[in-house]
Design goal:
Strand order of the largest sheet: 7-6-5-4-3-2-1-8
CATH superfamily: Alanine racemase
Helix content: 40-55%
CATH architecture: Alpha-Beta Barrel
Number of strands: 8
Oligomer: single chain
CATH topology: TIM Barrel
Order of helices and strands: HEHEHEHEHEHEHEHEH
Low-confidence stretches: none
Strand content: 15-25%
CATH class: Alpha Beta
Number of domains: 1
Distance between the termini: 25 Å
Mean pLDDT: 95
Radius of gyration: 17 Å
Length: about 230
């Protein structure tokens, strides 16, 4: 993807690259959701992106996301969605639920327990992805594929959680194509118990085109669009 020098150029470039990758994969462009990851950037950048047409935004730290969401809401009437894409501390669940529509990182039993407790006060179910642990280290965040279906059964039993699919990150030392194929296989397994849970959250700035080729539906793209934050 060719990098632009302005936010508008980078955003347009990302959309163009996504469309090209979608066509190459023989997929429907409407099946792809671009989540612009705006961590480490101010609310003003989100407001600019709203003007450019972006509607889905990702954050990974509640301490940053919560006030940012409030500021954006106070300065724009454009409908938009917040996606929480990072590891969520259980004591931040209540705060996250105040602004987020989608959680991409349901990664452990204790978080599921707290989500079940806290979502009882919601008017609409929270969309969730189960985060996969693709490593051999059981101490890493995420649910190992072998444990996916039993964990998914618990999510499906939760009244105010809407299981949408799986989320995964290709390892830095691993072959990304192989990792994305493992994520797709896990998605197919999940659909045995949850036929509607077809979403796949995979692919970031450096590998989203490959992720599209392997079935990703939700792309989490940050610096390729937002640029690096000037500290």
């Amino acid at each position: 993807m060719t990098e632009g020098t302005t936010l508008a150029e980078r955003y347009a470039g990302a959309l163009s690259a996504i469309r090209a990758a979608t066509i190459a994969a023989g997929r429907d462009h409407d099946d792809i959701t671009l989540v612009v990851v705006t961590k480490n950037h101010p609310a003003s950048l989100v407001l600019e992106l709203l003007e450019l047409g972006a509607r889905d935004f990702g954050e990974n730290r509640d301490q940053e996301a919560a006030p940012k969401a409030v500021e954006v809401r106070a300065n724009s009437v454009v409908e938009h969605r917040w996606h929480f894409v990072g590891q969520l501390q259980s004591n931040k669940v209540r705060s996250m639920l105040d602004y987020s529509s989608v959680l991409h990182s349901l990664d452990r039993q204790s978080l599921l327990t707290e989500l079940i407790k806290q979502t009882e006060r919601r008017e609409q179910p929270l969309d969730v992805f189960i985060e996969l642990n693709l490593t051999d280290d059981p101490g890493r965040g995420g649910i190992r594929p072998v444990e996916l279906l039993p964990f998914a059964e618990q999510v499906l039993a939760a009244r105010w959680l809407n299981l949408k699919g799986v989320m995964g990150v290709a390892g830095l030392e691993a072959d990304p194509a192989s990792e994305f194929e493992r994520i797709r296989t896990a998605s197919q397994q999940l659909q045995r118990v949850a036929p509607e849970a077809k979403w796949i959250s995979a692919g970031m700035s450096q590998d989203f085109e490959l992720a599209i080729a392997h079935g990703a539906t939700h792309l989490r793209i940050g610096t390729a669009i937002t640029g690096k934050r000037a500290y």
